[in-house]
What we know:
By secondary structure, this protein is an alpha+beta fold. It contains 4 helices and 6 strands.
Amino acid sequence: MANRQRQRVQYPLRQNMIRNLCISLCALALSGCDLPATSDAIPEPGVREATTQGPAGAVPGSCWGRTVSPAVIETVTEQVQVQPAQISSTGEIQSLPIYRTETRQKIVTQRQDNWFETPCTDRLNADFVATLQRALEARGIYKGEISGHYDDPTRAAMREYQIAEGGPDSPVLALTTARSLGLIAVERKPAE
């Protein structure tokens, strides 16, 4: 009777182990697939398009872009003593200590959102984008058609230019970049 009960308990455990193994193998198989990125997917606010959902304390009506610095995770392996050495009253070692190896992951740096101010999308009309494309073309970065559309080639050129100039690693046009390209007026401080 006790043997039968043991078998009943073990059968669901085996089923769960097999199911978990199948799920893991499927996930592993899918992780190797290079699925094309679709522009129809809803992007995170600020990552691909400017957003008014900026950081805490942002001025109402201002627009923001954002880059995401991923968390840095370190694998730590250490020896943990399970049983101390057995030492006799005369000081002789009776048995050596026993250790086991433990491996765990530790977050070294947390994931971080890096916000930067950007022109709002209502300013990015066809004329503005065409001017941006011409400015990037004049600097040898944009090689596409001057279409007035903030399309993928324009985003790629924008990202490349901003990285080269020490700006954000983002396809979203930063306000500082727009000013340095002469697309938006630079605010002047009144003379004292």
